Amino acid sequence: MPIRARLGFAVLMMLTWAFPASPAGDPKIATVYDIPYSRANSIELRLDIAHPAGGEGPFPAVVVLYGGAWRVGNKWGNRPTLIEFARRGYVAIAPQYRHCPRDVFPAQVHDVKAAVRWLRSHAAEYRVDVDHVGAMGFSSGGHLSLMLGTTGPEDGLEGDVPPGSPSSKVQAVVNYFGPSDLTATDVPDISVGLVRDFLGANPLERRDLTAKASPLTYLTRDDAPTLGFHGTRDHLVPFDQSMRLAEAMTRVGVPGRVELIVGAGHGWTGPEMKRTMANTYAFFDEHLKPKPR
Predict the structure, then answer these.
(1) N or C: which end of the chain has fewer CB within 10 A?
(2) Which domain CATH number covers 49?
(3) pLDDT over 90 (residue 118)
(4) C-alpha separations of 193 from 152, 206, 220 in Å
(5) How far apart are CA 293 and CA 291, in angstroms?
(6) In this model, does residue 24 exceed pLDDT 70?
(7) Which residue range forms the structural domain that includes residue 29?
(8) CB-CB contact of 159 with 113 (8 Å)
(9) What's the mean pLDDT when you consider all of the chain?
(10) 3-18 and 270-288 helices cross at what angle (nearest 10)?
(11) In what order do the strands lie in the sheet with 128-138?
(12) Do 265 and 234 meet the contact criterion of CB atoms below 8 Å apart?
């Protein structure tokens, strides 16, 4: 299997190890799969959703984004994660987005922003707390989550937005080993090739484009609190990417933290994945669930 195809498979295996399948007929959880949420060119984009079946709400929400170098992967790999979020009192969605090299940046950013707007537009139907929406992702999905947490309408990355549409910006982000600074040149050759396909241009020659596609370009004090995880033996996305993120967060005053998983590569499974996911839930609870009065 080529390395590019293995990226999405590796993230899928992480989630399969982390969570068992949902028990059939769980009365506390409702799921709907393959809901159309946007159309881009000739492509109909769909998403999956899981939410609490009972309770009054409104509930905080999380957008879960798969990885795969912006070129492979599928939303269905995140279904166990959606169900686990629903068990914990969240409305959770996993959108499909367009892949490169057929569709290049900023298509993927446009798509995930459209998914956030769809979520807020359907707040009454799914009992969503529109003021408490988070995003998390793995690898390239982590990068897209960071873009959701750092960019707004003034940055020109919204795509075609109908008048009166809700905001696409989120209030908390968890990034699993996604790149934060595509302007970096000290990266493996394979990473340069993947970024080239994502941008549709040589990243070493188009510094303007790499900056436009980098979350760090947009990071300001009022951006979403961010939690990051990264393996120190990640040979695809160097952990320096997360260190750059931590340094920038410190510089501008964005709350959160970055945790290095010593000895881990581009993803991990088993007890370590369960531990980091437990920290993920706690982080979202802290920032997305209103405090009792």
Answers:
(1) C
(2) 3.40.50.1820
(3) yes
(4) 28, 14, 29
(5) 6
(6) no
(7) 3-288
(8) yes
(9) 92
(10) 80
(11) 29-40, 43-52, 91-95, 59-65, 128-138, 172-176, 226-231, 256-261
(12) yes
Question: For residue 79, what is the enclosing H or E element?
Answer: helix 79-87
Cβ 103 vs Cβ 110: under 8 Å: no
Contact 126, 56 (CB under 8 A): no
Q: With beta carbons less than 8 A apart as the criterion, state whether 123 and 165 touch.
A: no
Dist. CA 115–CA 146, nearest whole Å: 15
Q: Rounded mean pLDDT of 197-220?
A: 96
Dihedrals phi, psi of 134, to nearest 5 degrees: -115, 170
Could you tell me what percent of the chain has a pLDDT over 90?
Answer: 84
Token couple for 32: 């709907």
Rounded CA-CA distance 115/135 in Å is 11
Residue 289 CB-density burial (10 A; 0-12 exposed, 13-18 middle, 19+ buried): middle
3-state SS class at 137: strand
Does the pTM exceed 0.90? yes
- What does the alpha-carbon distance between residue 127 and residue 59 come to, in Å, rounded to a whole number? 6
Q: Considering Cα of 228, then 254, then 198, then 117, what sign does the dihedral take? A: positive
d(CA 164, CA 150): 21
> Which residues make Cβ contacts (< 8 Å) with residue 192, sequence separation at least 6?
203, 204
Q: Per the structure block, which two tokens stand in for 243?
A: 């260190």
- Tell whether 293 is covered by a domain: no
* CA distance from start to end of the chain: 54
Within-domain flag for 198: yes
- Number of domains forming the structure of the chain: 1
Exposure string of 112-148, with b = 16+ CB inside 10 Å and e = fewer, is bbbbbbbbbbbbeebbbbbebbbbbbbbbbbbbbbbb
